[in-house]
């Protein structure tokens, strides 16, 4: 009798205690083996890993002619909305904020190269968010994930990563124009260039040593050093802030400023960019979901992601709200893995991140004085991370290598993502046909090839 009851007693001891308390019932803390304290600590860890976006996103997008102080508020507000939705709707430890990469394309490709007003560019991002929401709530999501070839996805991602690095170095004066070689390194007699060089050496070391909040610490340190480094016009690299803290500022100049009419009157020109934003948002979210839920052991027995539809829909909705506030694509952050490593398992981690972004709104005078020399190292590391997908590709296969290399090099050398995407896609089609795999080319890729050819014809007529 005793032997028969022992398994029952062991089973009873192994069973998790019943959930108690509102937070426990809402987020399933007991079920996922976590606690309120652990979730709050995880949220603080995630925020520290991604807080650089409050400084970097406004620094990039202000080059499109937008008010930098308003962009600080828009960035934080978009992160708050997205992270709260992710926490309450999807109940996943994923933080959400404006996406790196998309903000560079928004500023330097759409606005500065193509001449689209930033109001029209915001409308394009919002429209992409609507498409992504429809995709997220339907079965088309799986079809898109299957049909876009891995070589094209990785080529585009690596090209954007390289473009981020180049633009960051150029913006800080570390890379300059040269009449003989087109580009060259800035003078090492220039104090701002030396400050950038110091940051480029220091920041990867901090990250490699797993120093907590390495990127934001690097930005803070370089900003402080900038108070003592002479820049242009006799001023220091870092200007003195008007205050340390101030009441949160509503993004008046960017809120609801999007121009829907401009988008539809220039729809043919915008179409390739819509495809880029849609793919970038979709596959970035997919990769982040896979990585974070895997690290947290949250996947179901069949390998599926819990609440995946809610997570995708959250990203899509946030990418509609973001442009309404005045920022670019909003997405789940891979830095959320740092919070998972600290024990985060539920949406309470995301709500904690949102709380820290609320606090950051009171420090906007600090964020607006951060110089480009302080943000360059963080941007370079982001670019490096975006190139890591190259390791998954067999570069001895020309069908993979040529589209990727053309996408990457043409993007950087012409400073134009669309040129790289077009040549990469058309070369993929040509090579697949040449080796007798014409029937294996997805219809989506054929359609994209037609779009790029039409785009080239339109641009040739305009310019």
TrEMBL record:
Keyword field: Membrane, Transmembrane, Transmembrane helix, Transport
Gene Ontology CC: one annotated term: endomembrane system
Subcellular location field: Endomembrane system
PANTHER family documented for this protein: XANTHINE/URACIL PERMEASE C887.17-RELATED, XANTHINE_URACIL PERMEASE C887.17-RELATED
Pfam families the record matches: Xan_ur_permease
Entry-linked InterPro entries: Azg-like, NCS2
Record field: transmembrane: 40-60, 72-96, 116-137, 158-176, 188-207, 214-232, 260-279, 351-370, 376-393, 405-431, 443-462
Transport found in the keyword field: yes
Family in the record: Belongs to the nucleobase:cation symporter-2 (NCS2) (TC 2.A.40) family. Azg-like subfamily.
Record keyword Transcription regulation present: no
Organism lineage string: Bacteria, Pseudomonadati, Pseudomonadota, Alphaproteobacteria, Hyphomicrobiales
One example GO MF annotation: purine nucleobase transmembrane transporter activity
Subcellular location, principal: membrane
Name listed for the protein in its UniProt record: Transporter
Membrane topology: Multi-pass membrane protein
